[in-house]
Amino acid sequence: MEKYHKDKKGCFKVTIAQWEQMKTESTKYNVPICSRRKGTIALMFSGYASLVLTMVKGIVLIPLYLHYIDTRLYGAWLATGSIVAYFGLCDFGISNVLVQRVASNYGKQDFRRLGSTLGTGLMIGIVASCLPVFLGLILLPWIAEAFHITGVEASQLKLSFLMAAVGTSLMLMVYNVGGVLIALQRQIVPGMFLVIGDILSVVVTLVLLVLGYGLVAIPIGALVWGISAVLGNGIYLWWFLKTKLPQVSIRFKKNDARDLSFQSVWQFGAQAAVTLARRSDNLIIAALIDPSFCVILTVTKKAVEILTLIVRYFVRAFLPSLAHLHGEGDKKKFKKISVITFKITMLAGICLMGGYLFFNKSFVNLWVGKEFFGGGALTKLLYVYGFFVIIGTNFYVILFAKGEMVTAARAYIAEALICVPLSICFAMIWGIKGIVVAGILAIISTSFWIQAEKIIRIFNISKRDILSAASGIGMQGLISLIVGVIFITRWKREGIVDILVFGCLYVGTVFFMGIFFDRKSRVYIFQMQKKLFSKYLIKQKK
Fold first, then answer.
1. N or C: which end of the chain has fewer CB within 10 A?
2. pLDDT for residue 50
3. Is residue 304 a contact partner of residue 374, using CB atoms and an 8 Å limit?
4. Residue 111 falls inside a structural domain
5. Whole-number pLDDT of residue 124
6. CA 220 to chain centre
7. What CA–CA distance (Å, rounded) separates 500 from 307?
8. Does the residue 477 lie in any domain?
C-alpha cells in the first residue's frame, strides 16, 4: 500500500516518491508551488471588487444616463448591446477551454503539454478576438435604421456601436490572457488589473457625461477598461513565464489545435446558446414592441443580474482550482468541495432572490422612478428565473472543471433552441412578461435538468440524498418567504438607505436561519471554526 504526502498548503496529494521528484523539479526550475485555497479566495475578492464597480455602473450611473441621454436613444443603445453581446462569441469558446486545459496540465506538472497548449490556445484566441471589429464595420451602416433612430442621434448611435465592437475585441483578449494567468493559479494580478480598469472606466464615463459627450461616454469608458486590462495582464504573463516557468516552451502544435478546436466547438455552441437565450430580450422587445420598453425590463431586472452575479462570482472562483484538483486525480476531495459549494450557493441564492422579491419595487421607485418599474408579476417571474440561473451556473462549473464540457454545451444549446422561439411568441402575447416566462421554461427543461442528471451519475448520488437536498432547499425557501412577509409588513420604506439596511438584515436573518435548520451545514461550519482556531493556536505557540 502506497503512502501519501500532503504539503503544508494542501496543494498536492501524491506518493512520497512523486512528491520528492516534483520537489526536485520545482527547485531546479523554480516552479511556484501553488495554493488553490489562496487563489480561489483572491479570485473571489477581485470578482466582488469588480462587482461593486459593476453595480456603480449599473445602478448609480443609470439615472445619469437617463438624465444626459434621451430615453429612446438609450433604449436603442441597450438593444444594440444584444448585438454586441453576440460579438463576444467570436473567440469560439477557446478562452474557457484554455483555462480548463492549462489548469489541468499545470496540476499534472506536464510542462511539455502545458507549453504547447498555451502557445496554441493564445495564438488562436488572439486572432479570433479581432473579429468583432470587422463585424462591427459590416453592420455599422444599418444599425441606426434597424432601431428607427435618425438625425444627430443616429450618428451618436453608430459611433458608440463601433467603439463597443472595438471594446469587445479587447475584452476577448483580456479573457484569453487573463484566463491563462488564472489557470496558472495567479489569480491576484488579473483581478487587480480588472479592478483598476473598472475604476478608470467609471471615472472616464462619469466625466464625459458631465462634459456633455452623451451616449459615446459609455463605450469610451469600456475602451479604457479593455486597454488597461490587456496591457497589464499581457506584460505580467510574459514576465511570469520567463522568470517562474522557464522550462515551459511556448509553441504551436497541431494536435493541441485539434483538441482545443473540438472542445471549443461545443463551448462556442454553449456560449452562443446562452447569449441567444439570455441576451436577446432587449433586441426582441425593440423589434416587436418599442425600444422604450427595453429600459423598463432592464431597470426591473437589474437587481436580479447583480444579485445572481454575487453568487456566480463565488462559484466561478472555484473553477480553476477544481480543474487543477481534477488534474491531480483526487476524486474524493473534488466531490467534497463540489457539495460544499452547492450548499452555500443554494442558500445564498435563496437569500438574495428573496431580498429581490420583497424589496425590488421600493428600490426601483426610489432609484429611477415608478414609471420604470415593470410590476409585481414581472418581479415574481424574475425571482424564479434568477434562482434557476444560479443553480445552472453551479452545475456548469462542476461539469466544466471535470472536463465534461460537451454535456454542459448540449444543455445550453437546447436551452437556446427552446427559449428564443418561445420568447418571440410569448412577447407578442404577454409583452415583456412573456419573455421571462419563456426563459424560465427553457432553463428548467434543459440547463437545469440535463446538467443535474449528469452530475447525479458522475457522483453516484442516491435518491435519498436528492430528496434530502430538495427538502433542505424547500425548508430554506419557506423560511425566506416567512421572514420576507414579516419584514415587509412591519417596515416603512422611506429611503434608499432603509432599503439597503433592511435588505442586508433580511439576507443575514435568512442565511443564519437556513444554516441553523441544516444539521450538515452546522457541523461543517463548526469544523471550519475549529480548524481555523487550531491554526491560530499553533501560530501563537510558535
1. N
2. 67
3. no
4. yes
5. 84
6. 23
7. 13
8. yes
Predicted pLDDT of residue 2: 41
Task: Examine the domain organization and report whether 133 and 28 are in the same domain.
Answer: no
DSSP alpha helices (H): ranges in 491-518? 496-516
Q: Which residues contact 119 (CB under 8 A, 6 or more apart)?
A: 250, 251, 252, 253
Decide: 446 and 407 in contact? Cβ < 8 Å.
no
Co-location of 103 and 170 in the same domain:
yes
Please, which residues have CB within 8 angstroms of residue 485's CB and are 6 or more apart in sequence?
Answer: 358
C-beta of residue 39 within 8 angstroms of C-beta of residue 321: yes
DSSP H helical segments within 11-150, as ranges?
16-29, 36-55, 61-68, 71-87, 94-108, 111-128, 131-139, 143-146
Q: Kindly state whether residues 19 and 52 are assigned to the same domain.
A: no
Which positions of the chain have pLDDT values less than 70? Answer: 1-51, 53-59, 275, 277, 279, 324, 327-328, 492-494, 519-542
Strand partners for 15: 4
- Residue 241 and residue 122: Cα distance in Å, rounded? 13
Note every long-range contact of 478-484, with CB atoms under 8 Å and residues 24 or more positions apart, other chains counting: 479/510, 479/513, 479/514, 479/517, 480/350, 480/351, 480/354, 480/510, 480/514, 481/354, 483/354, 483/509, 483/510, 483/513, 484/354, 484/355, 484/357, 484/358, 484/510
User: What is the reported pLDDT for 40?
Assistant: 63
Count of structural domains within the chain: 3
The per-residue pLDDT for 171 is: 85
pLDDT at position 382: 93
Same domain for 461 and 336, yes or no, is: yes
Q: Is residue 237 part of a domain?
A: yes
CA 419 → CA 36, 201, 276, 278, distances in Å? 37, 33, 8, 8
In angstroms, the CA 385 to CA 381 distance is 6
- The verdict on 200 and 342 lying in the same domain is no
In this structure, the answer to whether residues 28 and 39 fall within a common structural domain is: no
> What pLDDT does 384 receive?
92
**Is the domain of 28 the same as that of 85?**
no
Half-sphere exposure of 11 (CA within 13 A, CB side): 22
Q: Is 6 exposed, middle or buried (0-12, 13-18, 19+ CB in 10 A)?
A: exposed
pLDDT of residue 379: 93
Q: Is the dihedral of CA 164, 165, 166, 167 positive or negative?
A: positive
Report if residue 522 sits inside a domain: yes
Structural domain including 66 reads 34-253
What would the DSSP string read from start to end of 165-193? HHHHHHHHHHHHHHHHHHHTT--HHHHHH
Radius of gyration of the CA atoms of the chain, in A: 24
DSSP state of 33: P
**Residue 179 and residue 195 share a domain:** yes
Residues 6+ positions from 449 with CB-CB distance below 8 Å: none
